[in-house]
Amino acid sequence: MIPEGLSKVSEPALISFRLKHRSDWTLWTRMTNAYFISAAWYPIIDYANVEVINVKWLDKGVNIHEYFTRLSKRGLIYDVGLVKKITGSIYLVGFMGPYKNTVRERLILNNIPYFKSSIHDGFQDWLILAPLNKVSDFKESLRSIGRLINFKIQHITSIRDVARVIAGNNNLLDYIKLALTNNELKALRNAWELGYFNSRNRATLSEVSAALNKDKSTVDRQIKESIRKIIYYIMSIM
């Protein structure tokens, strides 16, 4: 449980919401077929945000390099320092953008340190751990920069809940959600659950294939492709 003295001051809550910003670069994602997930962020207070994002680029009409160059020319971001293809349609992108009137500025102003965000079709989706006594002010500050949608508060009663949220939202998992197909993820999960990767008493590929009701060659390909994508990402950021 949360220590009694701490809970009276800053009982933690899990906050989720969607925001359509009035003017920043995320609004322009409605014009392209792509998914963006925040990987890392560093604020230069009152000047700029330095951001690194995982991008699943599916748009056939424009090149990802051209897209971020256009954002820079429009002044929506300041400088693009990295556009690196990881595998398939997945890229790692790093850039510097505005600090003022962003959700991240509002997070800092309200002393909220933990968050995850994703962007698609002009909408920002956020998951935040925040002291309950900061939520009201934070919510009101968001209304001044965009349209707030589905603002939800979930009370947290134990440190275990906090740990699970943090552990379940990390960069590698975010990348896996973007990069792996549903079939690849299902094959990998079943192989793991059946003990295919155990050092002893390993399940066979035939057993995994039978559980998935697929032929061995298909399952073997899906498992190997999943592992390849994960290794490519790890090695690209080391």
Task: Tell me what the structure shows.
The chain is of the alpha+beta class and 238 residues long. Helices cover 40% and strands 32% of the residues. Strand 4 and strand 5 form a beta hairpin. The protein is built from nine helices and eight strands. It has an eight-stranded antiparallel beta sheet with strand order 4-5-3-2-6-7-1-8. It folds into two domains: 4-174, no CATH class; 181-237, Arc Repressor Mutant, subunit A (Orthogonal Bundle).
Principal-axes geometry comes out as globular
| Strand residue content | 25-35%
Count of strand segments:
8
Main beta sheet strand tally, sense and closure: 8 strands, antiparallel
Total number of domains: 2
Give the helix proportion (percent range): 40-55%
| Structural class computed from helices and strand pairing | alpha+beta
What Rg do the Cα atoms give? 21 Å
Features:
238 residues, alpha+beta, Arc Repressor Mutant, subunit A, 2 domains, 8-stranded antiparallel β-sheet
Explain the layout of strands and helices.
Elements: H1 4-10, E1 12-21, E2 34-44, E3 48-57, H2 64-73, E4 79-87, E5 90-98, H3 103-109, E6 114-120, E7 123-131, H4 132-143, E8 146-155, H5 159-167, H6 171-179, H7 182-193, H8 205-212, H9 216-237
Helix pairs in contact: 6-9, 7-8, 7-9, 8-9
Question: Care to give the gist of this entry?
Answer:
Helix content is 40%, strand content 32%. It is an alpha+beta fold.
